[in-house]
Design a protein that fits this description.
This protein has 2 domains: about 5-140, no CATH class; about 140-170, no CATH class. It has helices spanning about 10, 150-155, and strands spanning about 15-20, 20, 30-35, 40-50, 60-65, 70-75, 90-105, 110-125, 135, 165, 170. The relative contact order is 0.17. About 5% of the residues lie in helices and about 45% in strands. By secondary structure, it is mostly beta strands. It contains 2 helices and 11 strands; from the N terminus they run αβββββββββαββ. The protein is globular, with a radius of gyration of 19 Å.
Length: about 170
């Protein structure tokens, strides 16, 4: 999106593993990306946890396919993710999305207040993240495939459309 907000990591993310990583700790640590038009891949290679470098390096990646499929690959996870401290930074893995609305602030008429609405989150069970493992997310059909609210509401999708009072439309 075009808005960077301090709540971004709490509400909008694609995170194979979010933690307090320090890519500058080692000359061998890198965060690289590749986009070939069909798949966009980000790889965290030999990154260390800030202040816990003795635990070893982590190597993992996220691959976003143009079909909507997302794959998280874990090559090197030296310690159980449940043992990573969340005191300095959240520790999580999964997907989350939200939208922001600018509302007039009641106390200052000429200003606007940002309100973030998280509408979907998929959290991975971090106890299952291990070296040489992967997780694949496959998209389900959505209302975005339809050209009108009527065709969406009457479709045979596997979820229930619902009215969003904020946007004044079906989701």
């Amino acid at each position: 999106g075009d808005v960077i907000h301090r709540m971004l990591t709490a509400t909008q993310y694609i995170a194979p593993l979010m933690a307090n990583f320090n890519p500058s700790y080692s000359r061998n640590s890198t965060v690289q990306y590749l986009d070939n038009g069909t798949v966009f891949v980000v790889q965290w290679d030999q990154v260390y946890l800030q202040g816990k470098e003795e635990l070893g390096s982590f190597t993992f990646q996220a691959a976003l396919h143009s079909s909507g499929r997302i794959v998280f690959g874990y090559k090197e996870i030296p310690v159980p993710v449940l043992q990573i401290s969340a005191s300095q930074h959240p520790v999580k893995a999964g997907l989350s999305d939200a939208f922001m609305i600018l509302n007039p602030a009641p106390d200052v008429p000429e200003s606007r207040r940002r309100t973030i609405y998280e509408y979907h989150r998929v959290e991975l069970d971090t106890s299952r993240i291990a070296s040489l493992s992967a997780v694949e997310f496959t998209p389900l059909p959505t209302c975005l495939q339809h050209q009108s609210c009527e065709t969406c509401v009457t479709s045979e999708l596997t979820f229930n459309c619902s009215w969003c009072h904020v946007l004044q439309r079906y989701l």
